[in-house]
């Protein structure tokens, strides 16, 4: 196991506490020797145990297993969605429901690894900038680990459920008069100068190692098969890379064959990566004032953009944008056709799938998995705002009958 820069290829020891490459500033990734990894695999356990992040511990960059901080993350349902498949017009459609994680989003998969690394490094405080889910998750895992947690949030732009969680788990929260991108650059500066504070945003190379397990679990739950396509929302852009990496590593060690076409979705008001993919750019152009109802992915300058672009291009995938209206319609479809409640950012996957099938970019014969990243209850205000208005009536039988329609 080692850290490797995705830009200049420099290699570093796995116990180095770097966020980015000290030589060129590029993003870091954890790499394994395939032969060493194959030796470590417990095939019987892999083929029999039910999915969870730590089922795949051979792929995790942990040096001291006694330090693992877990709230039983992963093992989320992979729903077979026939009603939705018919509505959209694809052969086989699944939804990987990450809202079923302990704090209601996929972030828990990364935090169980990230906070364990924080304990290995011996720090006392962990920190992040967040649109809400990262902070809720980090605050919970920090609480479990007995660490202090510092959070910078874009003031008034974090969904209520996420804010309530972060407050209740006891984090020190500083709302800033600025957006996520500004919050991230400030907290990064704090963590570079204050070595006692450990940064756990997804630029941290260890967090995506936990998130890889979304890919592992999908393959596992499909009977060690790889779907044709994975559709993922993109915000700060670590998750699409992590899932790609998961399939890549399974392929490398021979557990599965091939890599799905990674398909990233962004909201129209914040779509720097979609723009780069469509225009064939080498580098993306940041969006200065991102805006969307999907506040989780209201990000204009995604730190992991270069990783997302690689994942999409290497897997022959694509990227597409959707409007807030399309997101809301998809959120209702998921809830009303399948009983799956998701927050707006997660619904962008179904909106994107519908759009790409309509455009003929996605073939109707494909086997597709949409990754819904966060629970409906994360953003109750949005759910109420976009649903039919309620009408109060007198507490009388006849009045109620009149309103049954
Ligand atoms: N979906 C949800 C529900 C999210 O909360 C996020 C990111 C994403 C998708 C995008 O994932 O950043 O890996 O591309 N939320 C971060 C946060 C930014 O602070 O909670 P990504």
Mean pLDDT: 97
**Strand percentage:** 15-25%
The largest beta-sheet arranges its strands as: 4-5-13-10-11-12
DSSP summary: helix tally: 16
Describe the sheet with the most strands.
Answer: 6 strands, mixed
Ligand inventory: ligand F0G
Shape verdict = globular
Please tally the β strands and state the result: 13
> What is the terminal-to-terminal distance?
64 Å
CA gyration radius, whole angstroms: 21 Å
Would you write up a description of this structure?
By secondary structure, this protein is of the alpha/beta class. The protein has 16 helices and 13 strands. Helix 13 packs across helix 14. The termini are far apart. The structure holds ligand F0G. The site of ligand F0G has 21 residues, from helix 5, helix 10 and helix 14.
Quick summary of this structure?
The chain has 405 residues and is an alpha/beta fold.
Secondary structure elements and pairings:
Elements: E1 2-5, E2 11-13, E3 28-31, H1 34-40, H2 43-48, E4 78-80, H3 82-88, E5 92-97, H4 107-121, E6 125-129, H5 133-145, E7 148-154, H6 160-168, E8 172-176, H7 180-193, E9 197-199, H8 207-211, H9 213-221, E10 229-233, H10 238-252, E11 261-267, H11 272-279, H12 305-314, E12 318-322, H13 324-338, H14 344-358, E13 367-372, H15 380-386, H16 397-402
Parallel strand pairs: 5-13, 6-7, 6-9, 7-8, 10-11, 10-13, 11-12
Antiparallel strand pairs: 1-2, 1-3, 4-5
Bound molecules: ligand F0G.
Question: What attributes does this structure have?
Answer:
405 residues, alpha/beta, 6-stranded mixed sheet, globular, binds ligand F0G
């Amino acid at each position: 196991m080692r850290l490797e820069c995705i830009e200049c290829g420099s290699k570093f020891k796995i116990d180095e506490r770097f966020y980015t490459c000290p030589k060129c500033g590029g993003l870091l990734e954890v790499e394994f020797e395939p032969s060493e990894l194959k030796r470590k695999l417990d095939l019987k356990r892999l083929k029999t145990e039910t999915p969870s992040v730590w089922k795949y511990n051979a792929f995790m960059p942990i040096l001291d297993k006694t330090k693992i901080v877990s709230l039983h993350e992963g093992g989320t349902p992979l729903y077979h969605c026939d009603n939705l498949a018919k509505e959209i017009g694809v052969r086989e459609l699944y939804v990987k429901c990450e809202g079923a994680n302990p704090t209601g989003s996929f972030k828990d998969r990364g935090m169980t690894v990230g906070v364990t690394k924080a304990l290995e490094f011996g720090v006392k405080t962990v920190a992040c900038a967040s649109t809400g889910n990262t902070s809720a998750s980090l605050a919970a895992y920090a609480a479990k680990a007995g660490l202090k947690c510092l959070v910078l949030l874009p003031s008034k732009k974090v969904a209520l459920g996420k804010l309530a969680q972060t407050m209740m788990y006891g984090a020190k929260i500083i709302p800033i008069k600025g957006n996520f991108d500004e919050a991230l650059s400030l907290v990064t500066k704090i963590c570079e100068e204050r070595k006692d504070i450990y940064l756990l945003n997804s630029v941290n190379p260890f967090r995506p190692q936990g998130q890889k397990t979304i890919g592992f679990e999908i393959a596992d739950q499909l009977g060690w098969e790889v779907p044709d396509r994975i559709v993922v929302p993109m915000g700060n852009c670590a998750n699409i890379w992590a899932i790609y990496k998961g399939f890549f590593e399974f392929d490398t060690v021979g557990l599965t064959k091939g890599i799905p076409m990674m398909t990233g979705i962004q909201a129209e008001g914040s779509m720097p990566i979609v723009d780069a993919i469509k225009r064939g750019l080498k580098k993306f152009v940041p969006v200065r004032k991102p805006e969307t109802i999907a506040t989780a992915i209201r990000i204009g300058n995604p730190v992991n953009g270069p990783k997302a672009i690689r994942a999409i291009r290497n897997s022959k995938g694509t990227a597409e944008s959707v409007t807030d209206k399309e997101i809301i319609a998809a959120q209702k479809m998921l809830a009303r056709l399948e009983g799956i409640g998701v927050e707006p950012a997660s619904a962008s996957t179904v909106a994107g799938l519908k759009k790409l099938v309509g455009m003929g970019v996605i073939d109707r014969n494909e086997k597709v998995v949409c990754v819904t990243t966060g629970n409906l209850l994360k953003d109750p205000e949005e759910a109420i705002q976009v649903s039919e208005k309620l009408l109060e009536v007198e507490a009388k039988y006849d009045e109620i009958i009149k309103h049954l329609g």
